[in-house]
Amino acid sequence: MAQAIDVKGKLQVGPSPHVRSKRTAAWVMDQVLIALIPPTIAATFFFGWWVLGMVAIGIGTAVASEYIYQKLTYKPIKIHDHSAAVTGMLVALSLPVTAPIWMIMFGSIFAIVIVKQLNGGIGRNYFNPAVAARVTIKALFTPWLANWVLPGGLLGSGFRGVDAIGSATPLEFIGNGAQVVPEQVPELFDLFMGFNLGGNVGETSKFAILIGMLYLIFRKVINPKVPILYILTTFVVMALWSSFNWNFEMTHILTGTLFFGATYMATDYSSGSLTPEGKTVFAIGCGLLTAIFRITLDHPGGVGYSILIMNALAPFIDSKLMPRIYGHKRRPQTKFDRQSNNA
Amino acid sequence: MRFSFMGKHGGSHPEENKSRTSKLPIVDASVPKIMVYPVSMHIGAPAKPIVEVGDKVKAGQVIAEEGGFVSANVYSSVSGEVIAIEKRGKIGGGEVDSIIVKNDYEYTKADPIVEPGRSQDMSKDEIIQTVRKAGIVGMGGATFPTAVKLSPPPGMTIDTLIINGAECEPYSTSDHRVMVEHADEIIHGINLSRALFPQLRRIFIGVEDNKPDAIKALEEASAEYDDIFVRPLKTMYPQGSEKNLIKSMTGREVSPGGLPAEVRCVVANTSTIRSCYRACEFGEPLIERIVSVSGTPIREPKNLRVKIGTPMDSLIEDCGGFAAVPGKVLGGGPMMGKTVSDLGVPIIKGTTAITVLTPEEAEQGDSHDCIMCSECLNVCPVSLQPILISEAFERGNIDKAQELGAMDCIECGNCSFICPSKIPLLENIRSAKAAIKAKEEK
Q1: Opening angle at CA B168, ends B165 and B174, nearest 5
Q2: What structural domains does chain A harbor?
């Protein structure tokens, strides 16, 4: 039979492998954006439509500042990897509904320009941009942050629902040396679902975050051991601290930024550990530090500090825990260092 | 129970694409007028031609003799006339001295290489000599001379024989069909090894669990031997890598640059062990092999019994030609196979499959910045950190690439396959290896 198709001189040649997985960096980032939808829906339900405005401002500012930075520094434009959008969305969801617009914009610009781009760009930044932005905002602008806003939400006052401004968060009752849960703290079920809770919009409903976490695990975007070990470690330390007061440790893991941070921030690729065993140490370290900060500090913020400290330690952890290569007796003995995209 | 080569990491799941050929019985390929025999279809020294242009040759006659200890004889697989000895293209590119034989379609057979019917009575030396004479090399693709492999250095004892039936490359089904249709010959081949390795205690046949019919056939054929164990392996690439098979079957690890014999193992491919049996029992040299021909552009994929030296285009015509424009034509599978630029290149002893990819399937994608997802670490079967080696190489830090274990890379391709940023990780690691070798030779 004659060959109908002439291939002479038309065949591609090149080294193996000849096929590539369909997954792309942008697809991975899109999965994180999708996983942030359940907390966004919950936040909109509890705090009103303005939450969507916050998210739009966060994403818009982050993407725009990455574009402008890359334009001004004559670098290739890389907003199409969608990682800036993820950072912007995280920044917006990390703020209370009362946060002024300029604060959301400041957070996104700070995260993208200072933490991400000036440290080498995607995959190179040693600190998680959204966490660093959030901690910085807290340090600089606390007077502008009516932190613990009780929600009005879609069922209450609608657009930007604020019914009451609380003076203290539940964390202030159970942190700072406490070993039992005082009466002012909401029920566990309310903490889990996010009912009648104030705080940063994205982190109130642990139920919604759990859906996002399971989605990321199912899509194999995050390594499940990071969020699970992080939360579990905090739980265990709190159990020991409170002499196994079930209500106390459950209240702790369902309060504050723990779920949100463990799911979307400690799992960040560039600022987390690269090696499999490094990830274990990283997650346990985050959990230990969070518990210690909560026990000792008189104000919230333990999750942010913990993740940043572990971010700083991650290269060291990785250099000590490089996987043992097949057939070798020892791990590779070499420094873990990475080249900046700017170099 | 399924055996996997590692618990926590290693291995990927490229689309298998085996279903178009996995159930098709082996059929004879047509034999074209012109056959091409490269003098180098194995690892080691090229064979030396012992025929001249104009000579008449028989099917099964040596036309090039081994050129050293690590080398292999080359046989004509047809009868006819030597019409040229010249450079010809080969799978993977480049040219190699080749003996061109014009087929007379008489199939006049040369004498068997040994007296048939007495493989059971052969001594160790006779078996090794016969395997050597038959020109048998690793037929899974590695093409290392089998006689050398079967003669471990003095002082090394072998207690475990591992037969590699993993066939983890996508599309490939040649070993699969050999196991289904010739399980008995594989078991006979295994029994020959008892004379070779007196201390042999266990024989493992590792087969990926996507081939239940092969597992069943081998279990039936080996039912009467209580030291032959058919071990289903989790379907995962690269289960069939020699180092990983040894680890998953015995828990032992071969040291860097070491031979399987140092951990008392010998690993042989299913088709190779079958050829050893046929050489000893029937006096047949290695002049035929099974080749699966598949891929989206192939009109009618097949498992073919092919005379070694048959140009690829003849086999593609046997399969109805191309139904769509091919992007890449590969000798082997898509993970480790080699490209050809011209379909006139011949099938050699280690060609397990012809895989044809459409231009879209072969699309490599544009490379972007690493996002540190760590997938390349997760899929590396020897626990390397491919991205770090690749970056060290790109920075020109060859020492660092070496410290990170570049030389331990088995070039399975998993890292490049999985990378969402489409970084050519394996290409960089290969370059790093070449640079390390160049540095050490200085």
Answers
A1: 60
A2: 25-320 (1.10.3430)
The average confidence (pLDDT) of chain A is 87
Give A103→chain B minimum CA distance, Å.
28
Q: Average pLDDT in the B264-283 region?
A: 96
Say whether pLDDT at A239 is over 60.
Answer: yes
Helices A129-141 & A83-93, crossing angle to 10 degrees? 30
Identity of the residue in A12, A123, A324 whose CB atom sits nearest the CB atom of B328: A12
Of residues A121, A325, A327, nearest to B369 (C-beta): A121
List of chain A residues whose C-beta atoms are within 8 Å of the C-beta of residue B426: 15-17
CB contacts of B365 in chain A (<8 Å) are 20, 24
Residue A222: its chain B contacts at CB < 8 A? none
By mean pLDDT, which of A173-182, A260-269, B45-54, B151-160 is the weakest?
Answer: A173-182
Of the partner residues A274, A332, A339, the one whose CB lies closest to the CB of residue B395: A339
Task: Please answer whether residues B99 and B39 qualify as being in contact, where contact means their C-beta atoms are separated by less than 8 angstroms.
Answer: yes
Give bridge partners of residue B289 from the DSSP assignment: B306
Prediction pTM value: 0.91
- Give the orientation angle of helix A129-141 with respect to helix A101-109, to 10 degrees: 130
Closest residue on chain A to B413 (Cα): A17
How confident is residue A163, by pLDDT bands cut at 50, 70 and 90? Answer: very low
Cβ-Cβ contacts under 8 Å, B335 against chain A: 16-19
B228-233 β-sheet, strand order: B228-233, B202-208, B160-165, B265-269
Question: Residues B312-344: pLDDT tens digits?
Answer: 999 999 999 999 999 999 999 999 999 999 999
For residue A112, the distance in angstroms to the closest alpha carbon of chain B comes to: 15
Contact: A13, B341; criterion CB under 8 Å: yes
d(CA B61, CA B283): 12
Q: Which domains does chain B possess? A: 27-112+285-357 (no CATH), 119-282 (3.40.50.11540), 375-441 (no CATH)
pLDDT exceeding 70 applies to what percent of chain B?
Answer: 98
